[in-house]
Inverse folding.
């Protein structure tokens, strides 16, 4: 996704934010994709369909990996950023905040409120609070 490296880097250097990567892809392929981010996305923060089959379990795995990696017992907020309808569905079911990214809001088939949608990751401003809630 356009702007992904910049967003991950901005989150990683922040004292009050953490990042993890959850994907429905297989681990080997996903680790290759994550390696394109260099040190910004270590393998320890990648949760894949190789570890869990249910999408919600992949997300839980990503949150758990982030808690362990960053030494946190819990996070105050979990904001899920995704580019497909299933991302929005899982966020809603899990009660997570959600930001939908894509050229068209219609790709989320009604699962993503307009206020939660941006065309690209570069449109997310980390300097302001995320007023997005599903």
């Amino acid at each position: 996704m356009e702007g992904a490296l910049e967003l991950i880097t901005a989150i990683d250097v922040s004292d009050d934010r953490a990042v993890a990567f959850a994907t429905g892809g297989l681990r080997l392929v996903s680790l290759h994709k994550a390696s394109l981010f260099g040190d910004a996305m270590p393998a320890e923060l990648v949760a894949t369909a190789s570890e869990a089959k249910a999408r919600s379990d992949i997300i839980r795995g990503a949150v758990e990996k982030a808690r362990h990696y960053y030494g946190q017992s819990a996070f105050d907020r979990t904001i899920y950023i995704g580019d497909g309808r299933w991302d929005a569905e899982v966020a809603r079911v899990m009660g997570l905040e959600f930001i939908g990214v894509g050229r068209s809001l219609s790709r989320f088939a009604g699962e993503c409120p307009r206020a939660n949608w941006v065309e690209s990751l570069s449109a997310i401003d980390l300097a302001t609070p995320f007023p997005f809630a599903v």
